[in-house]
Amino acid sequence: MSWQAYTDNLLATGKLDKAAIYSRAGDSLWAASGGLNLGAQEIGKIAPGFDNPAELQSTGLYLQSQKYMLIKADDRSLYGRHEAEGAVIVRTKQTILVAHYPAGVQAGEATKIVEQLADYLISVQY
């Protein structure tokens, strides 16, 4: 399966409206759906944010110039919230999955979908 198929499948769930896959270092975009394309500065702050979330906690998480309040940060997952919308970002062995869910979708529904894809990629050494 191509990387593009993974992001397309995330959107096909109906729970996410934008998704992208970046290299773990955040230096290259592998696939994007729904028009999600982060600026170099945005992904450049996200990639190290898994290991040291202090900056993201103090300044917020930015996706496409929109600020999200960081509500979860650990070495695997970053979750952000802006009003009724949210972002789910999960790091695997070789990738960073970035997904956005719109108003009307429960955070738990969106996070489960992205975390399951991350589990699968980790299981196949990605």
TrEMBL record:
Function: Binds to actin and affects the structure of the cytoskeleton. At high concentrations, profilin prevents the polymerization of actin, whereas it enhances it at low concentrations.
Record key words, sorted: Actin-binding, Cytoplasm, Cytoskeleton
GO MF, any single term: actin monomer binding
Record-level GO cellular component terms: cell cortex; cytoskeleton
Species this protein is from: Lachancea mirantina
Location of this chain's protein in the cell: Cytoplasm, Cytoskeleton
Assembly, per entry: Occurs in many kinds of cells as a complex with monomeric actin in a 1:1 ratio.
Protein name: Profilin
One of the GO biological process terms: mitotic actomyosin contractile ring assembly
Taxonomy, superkingdom: Eukaryota
Similarity comment text for this entry: Belongs to the profilin family.
SMART domains (alphabetical): PROF
